[in-house]
Amino acid sequence: MIKIDQQEILEENYSVLISEEKIHQRLVELGNELVETYAGEIPILIGVLNGGFVFLADLIRYINIDCEIDFIRISSYGDEKESSGHIKVLKPLSADIKGRHVVVVEDIVDSGLSVQFLLKMLSAFEPSSLRVATLLRKRSRIKIDLKIDFIGFDIDDKYVIGYGLDDRQMKRNLRAIYIVDHQGR
Ligand code: IMP
Ligand code: MG
């Protein structure tokens, strides 16, 4: 793997939680899980913007069967760190998912409210199957009973950034996942 020094966009209060190598090792396994689940089918992976775009882009390159992609954008947070629970669709789907095998691809499941909203909304289009893949899950935070089918890593309840996840819309371009400590800012 080519090493790129990201020192200029790293800050003192960021510490590595999951390295680039660990992420890619896990993507190999997740890719295989998806291949086993969808053998003989052409699933459609729906990336949840903005945070899910890096995970989706890398994940599809570990899925060795035909697949399609689309994106949806929802809002619940604004620039806040806590979910408001009020969710709006900011960019609807383009694809017709009726009768399709759908995988919602999220960066992180925190309270679970966003995924719950997406599952309810997407099931109305009558897909053949509807599953969820998330790179990260904050297990202790989930408020509701929610089945997540493909999980990269279970993490503690800390705000994380990098690999698609933002710190006030920035830092999505970091190649690893970091914990950020906002205290004292
Ligand atoms: P939920 O509805 O509370 O599960 O929120 C999920 C969404 O909030 C994720 O898809 C992220 O976009 C955002 N989010 C939650 N926790 C974090 C975090 O630690 N870092 C960056 N974004 C987060
Ligand atoms: Mg998200």
In short:
The chain has 185 residues and is α/β, with parallel strands linked by helices. The chain has 3 helices and 9 strands. Strands 4-3-2-5-6-7 form a 6-stranded mixed β-sheet, with helices on both faces.
User: Can you tell me the overall shape?
Assistant: globular
Measured as a percent range, the helix fraction is: 10-25%
Total helical elements: 3
Strand arrangement across the biggest beta sheet: 4-3-2-5-6-7
Total beta strands: 9
The major β-sheet equals:
6 strands, mixed
Describe this protein's structure.
By secondary structure, the protein is of the alpha/beta class. It is 19% helix and 29% strand. The protein is built from three helices and nine strands, in the order E-H-E-H-E-E-E-H-E-E-E-E. The strands form two sheets. Strands 4-3-2-5-6-7 form a six-stranded mixed beta sheet, sandwiched between helices. The chain has a three-stranded antiparallel beta sheet with strand order 1-9-8. Helix 3 (113-123) links the parallel strand 5 and strand 6 (129-138). The chain is globular. The model has no long low-confidence stretch (mean pLDDT 91).
Please supply descriptive tags for the structure shown above.
single chain; 185 residues; alpha/beta; 6-stranded mixed sheet; 3-stranded antiparallel sheet; 19% helix; binds inosinic acid; binds magnesium ion
SSE blueprint and pairings:
Blueprint: E1 14-18, H1 20-37, E2 44-49, H2 53-59, E3 68-75, E4 88-91, E5 101-109, H3 113-123, E6 129-138, E7 150-155, E8 160-161, E9 177-180
Parallel strand pairs: 2-3, 2-5, 5-6, 6-7
Antiparallel strand pairs: 1-9, 3-4, 8-9
